[in-house]
Amino acid sequence: QVQLVESGGGSVQAGGSLRLSCVVFGYTYMNVCMGWFRQAPGKEREGVAGIGLGGGNTVYTDSVKGRFTISQDNAKNTVYLQMNSLKPEDTAMYYCAAHYGSNCFPVVFAYNYWGQGTQVTVSS
């Protein structure tokens, strides 16, 4: 059973940065995709970025390209989301998720293991 624990959320002013961490336990094969998602109040959950733990390939949604970076540290079983140039519209609960597979694009229905989430609030 794959388990995920996020941390690193908080409050920041527009233009600032935050780094989210997701520690992943229990995966048995390296063809694991890890993704970051977010959900703002009253909105649907949306994908942000994905990474394949085996090859390190990364994918991003258009809303965060050039501002967010997803990375991994396999020695620490941890995936990071570095968020720069934050905007008020980035305010949301951020979730880490995982699935076994090779297509790591962050679409909600493809991911079946989820963390509890960490709140990010960006003020103007």
Could you give the order of the helices and strands? EEEEEEEEEEE
- Spans of 5+ residues with little confidence (pLDDT < 50)? none
Structural class: mainly beta
Strand percent estimate: over 45%
- The overall pLDDT, averaged over residues, is 94
Helical residues, percent? under 10%
Biggest sheet layout = 7 strands, mixed
Q: How many distinct beta strands?
A: 11
Cα radius of gyration in angstroms:
13 Å
**Shape verdict:** globular
Number of helices: 0
Q: What's the N-to-C terminus distance?
A: 40 Å
List the helices and strands and how they pair.
Blueprint: E1 3-7, E2 10-13, E3 18-25, E4 32-39, E5 46-52, E6 58-60, E7 68-73, E8 78-83, E9 92-100, E10 113-114, E11 118-123
Parallel strand pairs: 2-11
Antiparallel strand pairs: 1-3, 3-8, 4-5, 4-9, 5-6, 7-8, 9-10, 9-11
Description:
- By secondary structure, this protein is an all-beta fold.
- It is 0% helix and 52% strand.
- It has no helices and 11 strands.
- Strands 2, 4, 5, 6, 9, 10 and 11 form a 7-stranded mixed β-sheet that branches. Strands 1-3-8-7 form a 4-stranded antiparallel β-sheet, with no helix packed on it.
- Strand 5 and strand 6 form a beta hairpin.
- The radius of gyration is 13 Å and the shape is globular.
- The mean pLDDT is 94.
Please summarize what this structure is.
The protein has strands at residues 3-7, 10-13, 18-25, 32-39, 46-52, 58-60, 68-73, 78-83, 92-100, 113-114, 118-123. The protein is an all-beta fold.
